[in-house]
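Quick one - first record:
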Amino acid sequence: MFHGSMVALVTPMHPDGAVDWEALERLVEFHVESGTDAIVAVGTTGESATLDEREHCQVIRFVVERARGRLPVIAGTGSNSTREAIDLTRCAMEAGADACLLVTPYYNKPTQEGLYRHYRAIAEAVAIPQILYNVPGRTAVDLLPETVARLAGISNIVGIKEASGTVERVGEILRLCGDTLEVYSGDDALAVDTVAAGGKGVISVTANVAPAALHHVMELALSGDVEAARRANVPLEGLHSALFCESNPIPVKWALQQMGLIGPGIRLPLTPLAPTCHAPVRQAMEAAGIHG
């Protein structure tokens, strides 16, 4: 349903933490012009955990309106509260989003049965295409392939962003689900390998700062020219690593600030990038041909 390089968009903010709407519009235009294949608005990279529900819906609506059908908008609507996730997903559908991305419930550590019922409840409540998001390193819960296969039988659950850190997991999901579910890499460093294994693209942090380059990499990989994709990905490898020298989205927001695309705002408990990380991120940007 969605293929290629999909950016996990940051939410730009003023120094006081208020959403910077002018910068957000600038980012949408940047991705339209750069060939990004879809925008994920207010995913976890967009600091969804610290935007209240009203702001969350406002950002989704704003991005949908500014994109104006020029590229798909996937709304991040996950929560560790099933009721809140339903409310956010309904808001996204009403705003005109093309799909929703729902991170697994964090902190409360539901069982696999709890995860199944959580996602089923959202899918039954809101008739919009939905993409599961598994990132155990951030949520302390792992959505296992067998549970994914159960969920794949629900008609409006159309994909999964898999960020458990192994291509083997991608293969296992595809083996169990076949063509009933599309798999997207949640790890930029594994994006090419994920497509080579049968995935359909990446939901990417790196795409925030190198959208055209990552679009090209995914275009090559999806065309079947995996070796050319690997070569094209080499200049981006430093970014895939350096943008995680501190917790995401701290480094990527700093990089975008150096590019003049956003200001310095970030919400507590996240803090500005430590000076010790400035040089590694800057060097990775330069290696990718990005100058700020």
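second record:
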Amino acid sequence: MKSINSIRMMVYASLFAALTAAGAFLAIPFGPVPIALQNLFVFVAGLLLGARWGVWSVAIYLLTGAMGLPIFAGGTGGIAKFAGPTGGYLLGYLPAVFVIGVLSEKLPKKPFFSIVAMTVGALTVYACGVPWLKAVTGMAWPKALSAGLYPFLPGDALKIVAAVPITRMLKDFIRT
């Protein structure tokens, strides 16, 4: 029975990696960091799959993109993306999904706590992405925050709010 559950979770992790890739194609170019739906699927993966399998999902996504498949925002791929302005955000998905997964496993299964977990996850992505953006581009802090944080807060708030009913709908189908 344990191997069947492991196979099921591998399939779910792969599915969320594919959904994250699909979210990257829904991108709006916006300065050095595009607006995309990738993090919505990272958030939902953390809530539904938990820390371990959520991390596997994001790792599959990142490794596939690093190998050159055009699954990052704007239909790009390759290891060089990690050295560019968005590299910190991409790498930030790993600790973010882990934190969301841990919090979702520990906190009560209520919408408020899901929102808290995803908010902490979003802040984790920014904590990795904004300093990376600043370092790679040479921007001053105010400019890096204006280019890589402030414009994304309303959209991330909407994604977090949307993720709650999505997660509620899917949790009955995804058995962890």
